[in-house]
Specification:
Layout (H helix, E strand, L loop, with lengths): L3 H23 L2 H41 L2 H33 L26 H8 L4 H5 L5 H17 L5 H22 L2 H16 L2 H5 L1 H26 L3 H7 L1 H10 L6 H11 L3 H14 L2 H17 L6 H14 L9 H10 L16 H26 L6
């Protein structure tokens, strides 16, 4: 059956919601903790399998793609187009979030949620993201160390670019290496197909654990905020898809069909990283040449997280509204620019969006403890923003492929 994985993922989501809800309603606190801690292992196994293949997959596909481009001028040209798209998409995402949060004002008069004190402890590590931290995440000291950690994708990207350019530069002598890496890339994509077979179980585990621990009641308390955030994501999807359709016209519907499974994986596991291997595979099936998709996607997973961008403005202003703190237009624009800059240095940081919000709001007189207001629903919000990140990176890859004349019909 052609859509077998899609159907199994949907079944996993439904069973996860049902079993999690039943536990949250009828089980004791100890039983819920036991269930959640064990069922989440299914999701943990899947994510560890994904992390296992990401390093070799990025290195092999990107190095081969760069080597096939042939020269540093082509790399620079594609890089400029890619970064230009990313900056534009980031501005759109942050600005749309800022407009909607001020229009809806979900944090004004929200009942049923207690405000944490300014000195309350929060389970998020704040970081100011100095330039040195960004450079450390960018340039590897040891490529083998970077390959051993899924958190250092940028370091693998930088090494792969150098390796690919150097391999192309030595001409015929580099051909055996290119062929070997090309074979490795195909092997890693085959392993990806095997790993994806476990996705429905991971979906079940992630959803069941979340619903069991939080219950569905939390969704009703925060329903206004969640509903307006997802409405914002819907508008952002429309904008991103419209931008993509400007390049591929009516084929946009075919593209959406191809990326359906990566979208569902990202949404249900609340991890855009988990969808990366499948998304790379599906974009190549759509017609994006591997030398473009393997270049744009790894960069996108560090610099083009459109859903996370919108969440940062939504979350920051929502906390300010909850505390009754008024921010002027200039302050809000300054916050937007701050978020745009700081968010680019957080590749590999756990719960990155929350970390950036925590690092930013304190600069504007907003209690950092306000992050605690988002923690109960962060998993549900993360599901939407992770799926949106997949859409944004898919559209970026297709657009750059089309601009470079590297998109097969």
């Amino acid at each position: 059956m052609k859509n077998k994985l899609t159907i199994f993922i949907l079944v996993g989501m439904v069973l996860g919601i049902l079993s999690g809800y039943l536990y949250s309603k009828f089980a004791s606190k100890e039983e819920i903790e036991w269930f959640a801690s064990h069922v989440i292992l299914l999701s943990d196994i899947f994510l560890r399998l994904i992390k296992m293949i990401i390093g070799p997959l990025v290195l092999s596909t990107l190095a081969v793609g760069i080597a096939k481009l042939g020269d540093i001028k082509a790399v620079g040209r594609i890089g400029l187009k890619t970064i230009g798209w990313f900056i534009g998409a980031t501005i759109i995402s942050l600005s749309l979030g800022l407009i909607l949060i001020n229009f809806f004002e979900p944090g004004v008069g929200l009942k049923g949620v207690a405000l944490p004190g300014a000195d309350a402890a929060i389970d998020v590590v704040k970081d100011t993201f100095p330039l040195k931290t960004f450079i450390n995440h960018l340039i590897p000291e040891n490529i083998f160390s970077a390959l051993s950690s899924h958190k250092e994708i940028l370091q693998i990207v930088v090494f792969s670019i150098f390796f690919g350019i150097a391999t192309a530069a030595i001409g015929e002598k580099g051909q055996p290496v290119i062929k070997a890496l090309d074979s490795l890339a195909h092997i890693m994509l085959k392993i990806t197909n095997y790993v994806m077979g476990f996705a429905p179980f991971a979906v079940f585990g992630a959803i069941a654990a979340t619903v069991a621990k939080n219950g569905l009641d939390i969704l009703f308390i925060y329903s206004k905020f969640i509903g307006e955030f997802y409405f914002g994501l819907l508008l952002l999807w429309i904008i991103l898809i419209a931008l993509g359709s400007a390049f591929v016209k009516k084929r946009i519907w075919t593209l959406l069909k191809y990326i359906r499974e990566p979208l569902m994986i990202a949404f249900s596991t609340a991890s855009s990283e988990s969808a990366y291997p499948k998304l790379l595979n599906q974009l190549e099936r759509f017609g994006c040449r591997d030398r473009i998709s393997s270049f744009v996607l790894p960069l996108g997973y560090s610099f083009n997280l459109d859903g996370s961008m919108m969440y940062m403005t939504f979350g920051s202003i929502f906390i300010a509204q909850m505390y009754g703190i008024h921010l002027s237009f200039v302050e809000q624009v300054t916050m937007l620019l701050t978020l745009m800059i700081t968010s680019k240095g957080i590749a590999g940081v756990p719960r990155a969006s929350l970390v950036v919000v925590a690092a930013t709001i304190s600069s504007f007189g907003i209690p950092e403890a306000g992050i605690a207001l988002l923690l109960p629903i962060d998993q549900f919000l993360d599901m939407g923003r992770s799926a949106t990140n997949v859409v944004g990176n898919a559209m970026a890859t297709v657009a750059v492929s089309k601009m470079e004349g590297e998109l097969d019909s």
